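Office hours follow-up: a student asked to see two folded examples consecutively, so here they are.
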Amino acid sequence: MSNIAQKRILLHICCAPCTVYPLSRLRENGWEVFGYFYNLNIHPYQEFRKRLETLKDFAAKVDLRLILREEYDVGHFIRQVVFRETKRCYYCYTHRLEAAARLAKKSGFDSFSTTLLYSKQQKHDLIKEIAEGVSRKVGIPFYYEDFRAGWKIGIEKSKQLGLYRQQYCGCIYSEAERFVPPKNSEKPSNHTRKQ
């Protein structure tokens, strides 16, 4: 039996479906993984709860220990990005990754990473750049891997597990971008008389 302790990594988690592939890769690479759910951007509250409960169920199935920040503080997020909506992702990534790095450092982890690196819908290069900067600032290694390589694998596995799969990033702005039709493509009003 080896006396070498397994390296521990704190994995910031945005949602359960995005965790499937990164978790398997990290475990394959010998990491002892702890999940950290902290997402002040998710709107509305019922969506936040649905993603959190889905993660708890998934974690129980795959024996993933979690550190959860269950407070709902979307107001703080909105106050930070209002009138700067085009730069909201920068704030959102920075805030969550810095929180993960600080917790990892304080708790004696060897490194930190994020499931944000899995999604093809996220700004991958920006996430990597911010995480590397946070790593230097906080003084803890950032584990980088392009988890997008397992995009299809993660989707199929999450479907097999019956995980709730959200349709937008999480914030009110991404929800509007996903579901509100552009002004020039609005359908005629129901009040329009048929000819």
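And the second, which I mentioned at the end of office hours:
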Amino acid sequence: MNENKKIEKETVEVMSQTSVAEEPKYVSYDDFSKLDITIGTIVSVEVVEGADKLLKLAVEIGEAQPRQIISGIHEYFEDIQFLVGKQCPFITNLQPRVIRGLESQGMILAAEHDGIFSLLIPHNELPSGTHVN
């Protein structure tokens, strides 16, 4: 293969990968509005036995009993007790899912980029159960 055809082929491959990666993934407002995003307060945290990444969080979201949320965030916290008392947004209307034999009743919202992890914490304390609009 001559050099021009090789460069042309590589350019086409890169362009096709780029165009696919840049296509936005839209959801309708109606679909987004189905999510119940609620501020919860983490009241206790435990390591899930036999799992390197999983933590079992008990989260107060304004209900009679705290919710159990299983989350793969252990690797980001040397001292998991740091999480106790933290407020974060949680998706609270996901269908429960069994993870390592434990029912997870929601999902914590957090962000990670290039190994840098961050909880999404409100800058003011809010009552547990406050809905995110």
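Two things to take away from it. The mean pLDDT is 88. The two ends are 57 Å apart (CA to CA).
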